[in-house]
Amino acid sequence: MTNLLQANQALAGLVNHLTTAIVLINTNMEIVALNLAAENLFRVSQHQMQLEPIGTLLNLDALLKQQLQDSSKQQQSFTSRDTQIQQANGHRLWVDLSVTAIDDEGSLALEIQPLERVKRLTQEARMTTQQQASSNLVRNLAHEIKNPLGGIRGAAQLLQRELNPSLHEFTDIIISEADRLRDLVDRLIGPQRQTQKQICNIHQILDKIDQLLRAEANGQVQLIRDYDPSLPELLIDANQMTQVFLNVGRNALQALVEHQTPNGHICLKTRIVRHFTIGNICHRLACCISITDNGPGISANHIEDIFFPLVTHRAQGSGLGLSIAQSLIQQHQGLIECDSQSGHTCFNIYLPMEKLP
Ligand SMILES: Nc1ncnc2c1ncn2[C@@H]1O[C@H](COP(=O)(O)OP(=O)(O)O)[C@@H](O)[C@H]1O
Ligand SMILES: [Mg+2]
Fold it and tell me: Taking the model in full, what pTM does it have?
């Protein structure tokens, strides 16, 4: 008996560790139980959903409603692959949905595997490889440019000493242009410093960003802070994170100001996310920092390439901000991604939350 009980408990624990969302419903189409993945997917708690109609979780279209009722009555299972479901809040999701009749009374188990996640992981892996290849290319090229630059500058200085002062303006041009090129190349080579992680309060860093952006916005854009106070301290390099948030925040500010967006605002938000996969690792807990603006958005043609070095769609841009942000986030084993449409651009930065020593 004890063994059976233990086995049942182990099974219940196991169901909670699955990445597939599972929802159990009874014949009245009421929710009986949810696993952890379902709670995360629909952002609800098991407790809150107990015996609520399934409609509170999912907007069932007539077809799906009929299929569920038939399944329950006839105790038959069905699977819909690559199908779209709508959450009660209107958000649509592409999923693989399997419905299984689990007892004679007509209770059903809904297994929902969001495809966004699978698609996201494949796309993310592809993008990371491409971006790393192009960053390496740019860095190697920058190193090759930097070496002879020192020589050119030195030779111009020697020449200047020998030249009649009336010709100094030309050597000055060589020297100042060589310096300009060196600065550009240094930025292309990117952060040289090793990441130095310390235990930090991410909200203090964001407060600093809030202050800086407020000062730069000069009253033209509103800044909103929406922090999760339960977020623990994180092991991060505070300077590098400041750089990341500033690069992303400045882009938002520039987009809002340049397009003169009415009621322009930027929101700095933090949340904890559970069971979040970055690369091949599923982190039990991760911190998500979102920087959102209500500006013009990034067109579908551009969104794929904004993280590449030297890609800019602004006249004064260098195209380095997001590429540097991404490489700093990768040094933190994190992930940065962007979701954008007109009037809503959101950069999500995920950082794994390890147990602190
Ligand atoms: N919040 C945003 N709203 C609109 N466009 C954005 C936003 N963030 C980034 N972008 C686009 O991404 C491009 C690349 O950004 P970035 O790498 O920082 O380079 P830069 O700012 O120098 O152009 C920008 O030129 C801009 O077109
Ligand atoms: Mg920028």
Answer: 0.68
